[in-house]
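Margin note from the TA: students keep mixing up input and output lines. Inputs are the sequences; the output is the structure of the whole complex. Example:
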Amino acid sequence: SAVISQKPSRDICQRGTSLTIQCQVDSQVTMMFWYRQQPGQSLTLIATANQGSEATYESGFVIDKFPISRPNLTFSTLTVSNMSPEDSSIYLCSISETGLSNSPLHFGNGTRLTVT
Amino acid sequence: AQSVTQLGSHVSVSEGALVLLRCNYSSSVPPYLFWYVQYPNQGLQLLLKYTTGATLVKGINGFEAEFKKSETSFHLTKPSAHMSDAAEYFCAVSEADLGTLTFGKGTMLLVSP
């Protein structure tokens, strides 16, 4: 399966700043997603990163807070804007090689973000 | 909307004992079901999946799970726990036609010597 590289692996940021997380895949993939895993919680889908168009956001997530880019079929970025301590989470890039609902998602190692 | 319930946020077993992690789902259509494992400071790794066919599916590291439609369950088992199995396990159900997954809250498996 495709290899997913996510960076940074972790960061400590100050309140009010922004952080951009990068996700690079070693092959072209149909679909890319961004998930959030809050401490002690499960994974929550933030958005689907669409190649060449605006991302599709889930309820509770907005583009101003989590702008996403996907310039091609192998790369995407997620920005966490105007951060607050509540944004401290693990952010995970995931891919679906086929885009079909019976196809598993594969995940990067995540970015562990702490906001002080 | 689909949902996944994992009973028990923590499960403790002794090395060599049976591992049973419970997962129940709700879905209005036949689901696709997945189990993932997350080791400390790592992303999620696919353990096994059920899509169609045989309801008992085998995965990596000796794990298996059985899809029981009548019980809306997809419990994960392993006959004999190893210390290296200590990790967090997530059950997930696929959202039809969207390619995304809905995850349970996870179960931390603790293995003692």
